[in-house]
Amino acid sequence: MYVQQISIFVENKPGRLAAVTRLLADEGVNIRALSLADTSDFGVLRLIVNDPELAYTVLKDQDFIVSRTDVLAIEMPDVPGGLAHVLEVLGAAKVNIEYLYAFVGQSGHQAMNIFRIEDMEAATVVLKENKIKVLPKEEVYAL
Amino acid sequence: MYWNERYECMPRPELEALKMERLQQTVERVYHKVAHYRKAMQAKGLEPGDIKELNDLSYLPFTVKTDLRDNYPYGLFAAPLSEIIRVHSSSGTTGKPIVVGYTRQDLNNWSELAARSLGFAGVTDQDVIQISYGYGLFTGGLGIHMGAERLGACVIPASGGNNQRQVMVMKDFGTTVLACTPSYALVLAEEMAELGLTNEDLKLKAGVFGAEPWSEGMRKEIENLLGLSAHDIYGLSEIMGPGVAMECSAKEGLHVFEDHFIPEIINPETGEVLPYGQTGELVFTTITKEGFPVIRYRTRDLSSLSLEECSCGRTHVRMERIAGRSDDMLIIRGVNVFPSQVESVLLDIGYLSPHYHLVVERINNLDRLEVQVEVSAEMFSDEIRRLEQLEHQIKQRLDSVLGVSCKVTLVEPKKLARSEGKAKRVTDKRNL
To answer: Which residues sit opposite A70 in a β-bridge?
Structure first.
């Protein structure tokens, strides 16, 4: 039910990111959102794609270390304070956020962020109570 | 307190005479009962009668691992199968394993030596001993088991694995002595911490740890965490199993049980016998074995021998704790480092089949060791924090086990050079 994020272990070496993205491109996988967390030696590339199942299989077959993680795609007004409001709601409910990053595309006046949250269920309830829209996965993949 | 004072403290001249008598019997036995030894001796123009004094041992041909493998499974047995009442087998990392057989008398001697070894660590019939070595073809579990029963201790045949239950047993059954590999002792210590237990909650007093090389640093760590006195036990299935040599309370080397085995140290390149004090390859000749006697077996383990008087009062020669293997040793800042140590650390941490590579460089006249560890699917986390924790955990454990500081780098799989069959584990750039 949650949006599936693909995470890939990459060494900090020239060409590694290119190798991942080229591999996905050749299979027709389209990247919707991405974030790269890194240290001096390695990084973790996190992707939201149109077809996570395909992306996972393709990468795994090429011996990349890859995993799938549930995340929330949260919609918010693209105005000052849009993100702050969402974070305040989650903060007030003591929902812990592991990481978040922005969506590449946007629709109309809405912005979107990807949230990785410890307690996904609690977050979903809180967001619903506060009338904050969480996008269903089908909608996210099709964007 | 001695288990067998007569033999453990036998005056040297008497011990030398006993060794000589038993060596001659063994040479007679293998010459007449094992084709391999007869041929090897004949090739050097030797007959059993040529062995007239202990020094003549050096005339006898060496036995190497491939000799054992070539005679798989029973070719080197010196007793008919009807007299063999047990076999064990060593894991074969390449090719066939090695099969060893024991007669009733062999098992009798082995249990005596295992009991003697436990006695070195202060174990008595009052103790509860948890044996967490693997039971089965591996000699570790059953070897210690027989010795502990012979001693009259209360034996818990726990075998390896199921860490949480091991700790529960240790606590609830009141275990006083733990026998396992040193790296497994650390795993159990970690499990204890996770269950919120300290050594105050346990009754441990002694540990009998062996079957892999370990450092003085690791000993301290184990002793602190488990609250016991840690003793090193040495053995290999080709010679007998655990109980070939054992560390006494002085902890300055391991006494080799010379009434059953004659150790030699040789130069691994030339085969020349080295004097006391010099480090080289450890070679053993068994002098009481009936089922599987071995003449001058090259262990590939590196050590040195000392005849200096020991404060424990025992007279048997001491071997320095194993410095590693003659075939894959690296010396880094004067410390001997072995790829196998890295492997055992990674296995302990939770890797199912670890792949790693050691890179040694000399920068500003200082050796620098980098350990590249492949990230595996089971160890991967989407969170950088977890990966950094993993890296840190590996480094801490390696520093302690290797006794030398290293840099740990997590790398992608298949990046590490793998030659055919056996992985190439080391790149030493210092010679370039």
So the answer is: A4
A65–B384 CB contact, under 8 Å:
no
Contact A16 B412 (CB under 8 A): yes
pLDDT at position A108 is 67
Domain spanning A70-142, CATH class: alpha beta
Residue A121 touches chain B, beta carbons under 8 Å: no
* pLDDT score of B93: 46
Phi-psi region of B334 (alpha: psi -120 to 50; beta: other; left: phi over 0): left
Q: Which residues contact A72 (CB under 8 A, 6 or more apart)?
A: A2, A3, A114, A115, A117, A120, A123, A124, A127, A134
**pLDDT value of position B209:** 95
Share above pLDDT 70 across residues of chain A, in percent, rounded to a whole number: 97
Which pair of structure tokens corresponds to residue A84?
């702050």
Full strand arrangement of the beta sheet holding B297-303: B261-266, B280-286, B297-303, B324-325
Residues of chain B with pLDDT under 70: 91-95, 323-325, 327, 334, 336, 352-353, 414-424, 431-432
Measure in Å the smallest separation between the Cα of A108 and chain B Cα atoms.
31
Q: Tell me the residues of chain A between 31 and 60 that have a Cβ less than 8 Å away from chain B.
A: 37-39, 41-44, 46
Tell me which of 3.30.43.10, 3.30.300.30, 3.30.479.30, 3.60.15.10 is the CATH number of domain B330-431: 3.30.300.30
- Give the C-alpha separation, B96 to B90, whole Å: 9
- pLDDT at position B337 is 80
pLDDT of B419 reads: 40
Q: Residues B156, B173: contact at Cβ < 8 Å? A: yes
Smallest Cβ–Cβ distance between B382 and the set A38, A41, A44 belongs to A44
Q: How far apart are CA A44 and CA A39, in angstroms?
A: 9
- Are A65 and B382 a contacting pair at CB < 8 A? no
Per CB-CB distance under 8 Å, the chain A contacts of B383 are 44, 98-99
Q: In this complex, is the C-beta atom of A124 within 8 Å of any C-beta atom belonging to chain B?
A: no
What is the domain class of B1-325 according to CATH?
alpha beta
Distance to chain A for B165, nearest Cα, Å: 30
| Among B377, B383, B388, beta carbon nearest to A65 | B377
Sign for the CA dihedral angle at B374, B376, B380, B386 comes to negative
Q: If contacts are CB pairs under 8 Å, which of residues 388-417 in chain B contact chain A?
A: 388, 409-415
A61 contacts on B by Cβ (under 8 Å): none
Q: Please answer yes or no on whether B384 and A64 come within 8 Å at the CB atom.
A: no
**Is A44's CB within 8 Å of B411's CB?**
no
Mean pLDDT (whole number) for A39-67: 93
pLDDT 10s digits, A87-143: 999 999 999 999 999 886 666 678 888 999 988 899 999 999 999 999 888 888 887
Domain A3-69 has CATH 3.30.2130.10: yes
pLDDT tens track for B345-383: 888 787 766 788 899 988 877 889 999 998 988 889 888
